[in-house]
Amino acid sequence: TMKNPVPQAASLLLEKLLLLVHVRPLSAGSGGEPPPAPGYYDTSCFKRGDLLEVPRTLFIHFGIYLGENRVAHLMPDILPAFTGDRRQIQQVVTNKRLILGVITKTASIRVDTVEDFAYGGSILVNHMDRLFQDQVLGSEEAARRAEKLVGATAYSLLWNNCEHFVTYGRYGAPVSFQTDKFCETVKMIIRDQRSVLASVLVGLASIVCLGLAPSTTLPTIFIPFFLWMAG
């Protein structure tokens, strides 16, 4: 039997929304499956100040290795706007916290273990160095730059996401090739205004099929609105 295409379309819309924030989708409400146990990754090959990349299906997440199995990385998160309790903030960022962080443009540069940062994905080390060549800063300077920025920060897809954070730390200039590519894709999409109508229809169909929920309603609202504003 063929699978129902509507839930698949709704899932794709959610993935596109999470693409904007460069993080791995988590299971709603539960905080997602637990990350691999400590020791899953061989950190002996990482050096302080290394730029770590975790490729996903639709995006890449970035961090700066600080040594001793610690990685600094930027994630959208609403919680730092309401509390300074480090124990609460340091818990795994749920979808609700993440999406509210995107909407309110708030984030946190946090320090997690390699396991929590990579969440089972493969890790590339200093893969972007080839693009910057003579601009690579010293490893210790890169790590110190990252450490100074740890804490609550503003979030912006265009100006302050996880890639901007690591390129500033390791190369001295905040750049996001991923965002540039996304914006080019959006420009291509809005040339055909039918894509906006298609997004609305798929979103409405997913709501009818799956009910009102953040995973169906938010993409239905924000994706067409974003395309309309960009046009």
TrEMBL record:
EC identifiers of the protein: 2.3.1.135
Localization per Swiss-Prot or TrEMBL: Cytoplasm, Perinuclear region; Endoplasmic reticulum membrane; Late endosome; Rough endoplasmic reticulum
Signal peptide range: 1-28
This protein's record includes keyword rRNA processing: no
Catalytic activity: 1,2-didodecanoyl-sn-glycero-3-phosphocholine + all-trans-retinol--[retinol-binding protein] = 2-dodecanoyl-sn-glycero-3-phosphocholine + all-trans-retinyl dodecanoate + apo--[retinol-binding protein]; 1,2-dihexadecanoyl-sn-glycero-3-phosphocholine + all-trans-retinol = all-trans-retinyl hexadecanoate + 2-hexadecanoyl-sn-glycero-3-phosphocholine; all-trans-retinol--[retinol-binding protein] + a 1,2-diacyl-sn-glycero-3-phosphocholine = apo--[retinol-binding protein] + an all-trans-retinyl ester + a 2-acyl-sn-glycero-3-phosphocholine; all-trans-retinol--[retinol-binding protein] + 1,2-dihexadecanoyl-sn-glycero-3-phosphocholine = apo--[retinol-binding protein] + all-trans-retinyl hexadecanoate + 2-hexadecanoyl-sn-glycero-3-phosphocholine
Any single biological process term in GO: visual perception
Enzyme class of the recorded protein, top EC level: transferase
GO cellular component terms attached to this protein's record: endoplasmic reticulum membrane; late endosome; perinuclear region of cytoplasm; rough endoplasmic reticulum
Active site: C162
Pathway: Cofactor metabolism; retinol metabolism
Membrane association type: Single-pass membrane protein
Keywords per UniProt: Acyltransferase, Cytoplasm, Endoplasmic reticulum, Endosome, Lipid metabolism, Membrane, Sensory transduction, Signal, Transferase, Transmembrane, Transmembrane helix, Vision
GO MF annotation terms: phosphatidylcholine-retinol O-acyltransferase activity
Function text: Transfers the acyl group from the sn-1 position of phosphatidylcholine to all-trans retinol, producing all-trans retinyl esters. Retinyl esters are storage forms of vitamin A. LRAT plays a critical role in vision. It provides the all-trans retinyl ester substrates for the isomerohydrolase which processes the esters into 11-cis-retinol in the retinal pigment epithelium; due to a membrane-associated alcohol dehydrogenase, 11 cis-retinol is oxidized and converted into 11-cis-retinaldehyde which is the chromophore for rhodopsin and the cone photopigments.
Family from the record: Belongs to the H-rev107 family.
Protein name: Lecithin retinol acyltransferase
Lineage: Eukaryota, Metazoa, Chordata, Craniata, Vertebrata
